[in-house]
C-alpha cells in the first residue's frame, strides 16, 4: 500500500471540505467496525462433525448480524451513505487522475489492484468453496456475492421475498455451512477496509490536501463543553 508522504502529496489534488468530511466518516465507520466481536477475532474455527454437527465455534447469530450491520455501511454498493469502500476508492482515484503526475498514476494502479481484490473476494471464498449439484445434474457455485446479496437484501436489512426464499433454500440460519460462508465473505473484506482506512489517514494528515473542517471541529468542541 502507498504510504510515502511525498507520493500522496504529489499524487493527489486537494480535497474540498465536503470530501474531507466523507474521508473522516469512512474512518469513523471502520473504527465502529473494529468494535464488532467478530472483527476483533484473529481466527475462526469451523468444526465438521457427524450427523450434521457442523458448527462455528464461539460465533452467535447476534455477532453475525452485528458484523453485517457495519459491513453493509462499508462494503455494499447499494448503500446511499456515500462512504462505502468503492465510493471512497473512486473519490480518491479521481483526485489521483486529476493530478496528472507519475505519482498519481502509481496511486491509480494501486486502486485498480484494490478493485481487482474486491472483485475476486466476491467471486469466491479464499478458504471454502461451495458447489451445489442441481436436480438436472448440473452444478452451481454459491459465491460470496450471492450469499451477501440474499442475506443483506432478503434477511437482515431489506425484505426482498425472492432473496429471502433463496436464503432459505440454501439452508437459512439452520445451515452451519451457510453461516460459515457468510462470516467468511464479510471477514475477507476486513483487511481491504483497513488498507483503505490507513491510506485515508495518511491523506487526512496532509494539511495541504485537506482543509481544516472548522465548522465540524467547532461543533465537536461545543458538544464537549
Automatic annotation (TrEMBL):
This is Uncharacterized protein. It comes from the Bacteria.
Amino acid at each position: 500500500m502507498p504510504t510515502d508522504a511525498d507520493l500522496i502529496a504529489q499524487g493527489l489534488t486537494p480535497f474540498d471540505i465536503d470530501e474531507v468530511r466523507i474521508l473522516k466518516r469512512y474512518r469513523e465507520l471502520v473504527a465502529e467496525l473494529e468494535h464488532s466481536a467478530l472483527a476483533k477475532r484473529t481466527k475462526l474455527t469451523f468444526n465438521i462433525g457427524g450427523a450434521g454437527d457442523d458448527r462455528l465455534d464461539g460465533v452467535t447469530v447476534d455477532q453475525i448480524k452485528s458484523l453485517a450491520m457495519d459491513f453493509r455501511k462499508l462494503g455494499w454498493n447499494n448503500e446511499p451513505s456515500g462512504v462505502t469502500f468503492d465510493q471512497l476508492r473512486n473519490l480518491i482515484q479521481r483526485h489521483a487522475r486529476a493530478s496528472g503526475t507519475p505519482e498519481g498514476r502509481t496511486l491509480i494502479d494501486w486502486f485498480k489492484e484494490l478493485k481487482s481484490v474486491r472483485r475476486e473476494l466476491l467471486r469466491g471464498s479464499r478458504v471454502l468453496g461451495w458447489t451445489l449439484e442441481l436436480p438436472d445434474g448440473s452444478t452451481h457455485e454459491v459465491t460470496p456475492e450471492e450469499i451477501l446479496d440474499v442475506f443483506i437484501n432478503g434477511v437482515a436489512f431489506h425484505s426482498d421475498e425472492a432473496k429471502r426464499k433463496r436464503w432459505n433454500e440454501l439452508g437459512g440460519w439452520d445451515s452451519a455451512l451457510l453461516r460459515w460462508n457468510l462470516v467468511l465473505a464479510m471477514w475477507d473484506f476486513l483487511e481491504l477496509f483497513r488498507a483503505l482506512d490507513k491510506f485515508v489517514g495518511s491523506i487526512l494528515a496532509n494539511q495541504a490536501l485537506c482543509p481544516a473542517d472548522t465548522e465540524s471541529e467547532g461543533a465537536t468542541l461545543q458538544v464537549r463543553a
